[in-house]
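Field log, afternoon session.

UNIT: design team B
ACTIVITY: writing a sequence onto a fixed backbone
BACKBONE:
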C-alpha cells in the first residue's frame, strides 16, 4: 500500500479562488489544471490518483504540493520565462535598420522583407520583426506638395483666420467643385454582407456618364449646400453663387475657394462688384487642402460614391442629394486647430 501524504490545508479564501480558477473558461488551461490538482490534494486524494486524473507525473504532483505550500494560490500561476535567447545580435539589428534606411539594391524602388533578408543574410521573418519594432514601413509612401504662391503667407493667415475667428454676424462658406464624378454600374448585382463574409462586387463595371458637384460648407454649422451640374464652367459657378447669395440675402458672406479659372471670369468679377456683401478668399495656389470642404468631399466619396452602383447619371445625382439631405439632418462642423504660423512654416518654409 502506497504511503499516504498528509493532506494540505486550504483556507476558505484560497478554496474559493481555486474553485473559481477551476471553473473559469478564460483562465489558462495549465492554471486550471493546477487548481484542480490542489483541490484534490485538499480532499486527501492520493498522489498517484491525482497524477492519473490530471495527466501529471507523481513527481510533478509532489512538486506542485510543495509549490502551493510555500507560495499559496499565487504560486500556481505561470512564472515569467526568459524565452529563447536572441539569435540576432544588437549590432546585427542596427545594421539591418541602417540598411533599411539606405537606397535599395539597383532596380528596386524600395526594400521588401525578402530582398533585405537576402542582402543581410537573415530570414525575412527576422527583418519583419525588426521593422515592426522600429516602426519601419518601406512599402508605404506619402505625397506632399509645397506651394510656390508668392502671396501664400498672406492667404494662409486670411483663410485660417476666417476659420478660427470668423467676423461677427457674417457667414463663412468653404466652396469647391468635385468634378467628373462617374456613374459606374457593376456588371452583376452586389452580393450582400454575410456573417464571416464581406460584401462582394464584380471587378468590372460600365461607365454611364459624369456629373460635377458644387458644394458650399457652412463653417459654423457644418451644413452643406450642394448642386450637381453637367458642366463646371464659369457660368455654372456663377449660377451657384447667385443661389448662395439668395439663400443668405442681406448677410455678409465670406467664401473660401481655390484658384480655378472659373472663379475669376469677367462675369464673376462684374457680379461681385454689384454684391459688396460677398467677399472671396482664395487659398494659395497648390494648397487647395486648405479649403475645408475638401474634407467633406472625402467623406462623401467614401460613404456614398465609391462603392455605389449607378445605372444612370440621374440615379447618381439622386444618391448624392440624398446623402447631403442626411448629412444636413445632423450636420457636424469641422474644427480647424492648426495655427497659421505653423502652417506657414511647414508649407512655405521647407519649400524655400
Amino acid at each position: 500500500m502506497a504511503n499516504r501524504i498528509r493532506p494540505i490545508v486550504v483556507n476558505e479564501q484560497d478554496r474559493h479562488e481555486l474553485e473559481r480558477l477551476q471553473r473559469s473558461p478564460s483562465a489558462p488551461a495549465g492554471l486550471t489544471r493546477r487548481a484542480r490538482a490542489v483541490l484534490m490534494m485538499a480532499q486527501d486524494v492520493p498522489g498517484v490518483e491525482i497524477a492519473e486524473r490530471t495527466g501529471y507525473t507523481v513527481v510533478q504532483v509532489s512538486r506542485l504540493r510543495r509549490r502551493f505550500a510555500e507560495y499559496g494560490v499565487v504560486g500556481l500561476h505561470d512564472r515569467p520565462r526568459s524565452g529563447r535567447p536572441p539569435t540576432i545580435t544588437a549590432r546585427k539589428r542596427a545594421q539591418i535598420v541602417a540598411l533599411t534606411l539606405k537606397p535599395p539594391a539597383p532596380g528596386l524602388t524600395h526594400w521588401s522583407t525578402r530582398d533585405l533578408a537576402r542582402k543581410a543574410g537573415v530570414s525575412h521573418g527576422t527583418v519583419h520583426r525588426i521593422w515592426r519594432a522600429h516602426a519601419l514601413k518601406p512599402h508605404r509612401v506619402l505625397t506632399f506638395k509645397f506651394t510656390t504662391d508668392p502671396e501664400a503667407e498672406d492667404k494662409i493667415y486670411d483663410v485660417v483666420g476666417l476659420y478660427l475667428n470668423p467676423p461677427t454676424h457674417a457667414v463663412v462658406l468653404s466652396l469647391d467643385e468635385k468634378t467628373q464624378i462617374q456613374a459606374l454600374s457593376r456588371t452583376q448585382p452586389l452580393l450582400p454582407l454575410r456573417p464571416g463574409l464581406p460584401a462582394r462586387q464584380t471587378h468590372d463595371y460600365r461607365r454611364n456618364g459624369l456629373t460635377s458637384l458644387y458644394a458650399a460648407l457652412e463653417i459654423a454649422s457644418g451644413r452643406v449646400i450642394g448642386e450637381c451640374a453637367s458642366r463646371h464652367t464659369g457660368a455654372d459657378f456663377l449660377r451657384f453663387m447667385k443661389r448662395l447669395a439668395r439663400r443668405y440675402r442681406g448677410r455678409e458672406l465670406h467664401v473660401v475657394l481655390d484658384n480655378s479659372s472659373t472663379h475669376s471670369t469677367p462675369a464673376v468679377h462684374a457680379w461681385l462688384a454689384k454684391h459688396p456683401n460677398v467677399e472671396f478668399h482664395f487659398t494659395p495656389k497648390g494648397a487647395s487642402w486648405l479649403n475645408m470642404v475638401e474634407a467633406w468631399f472625402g467623406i462623401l466619396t467614401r460613404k456614398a460614391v465609391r462603392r455605389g452602383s449607378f445605372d444612370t447619371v440621374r440615379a447618381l445625382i439622386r444618391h448624392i442629394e440624398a446623402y447631403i439631405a442626411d448629412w444636413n439632418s445632423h450636420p457636424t462642423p469641422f474644427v480647424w486647430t492648426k495655427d497659421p504660423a505653423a502652417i506657414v512654416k511647414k508649407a512655405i518654409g521647407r519649400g524655400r
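LOG NOTE: DSSP finds 13 helices and five strands in the chain.
NEXT ACTIVITY: expression trials, pending approval
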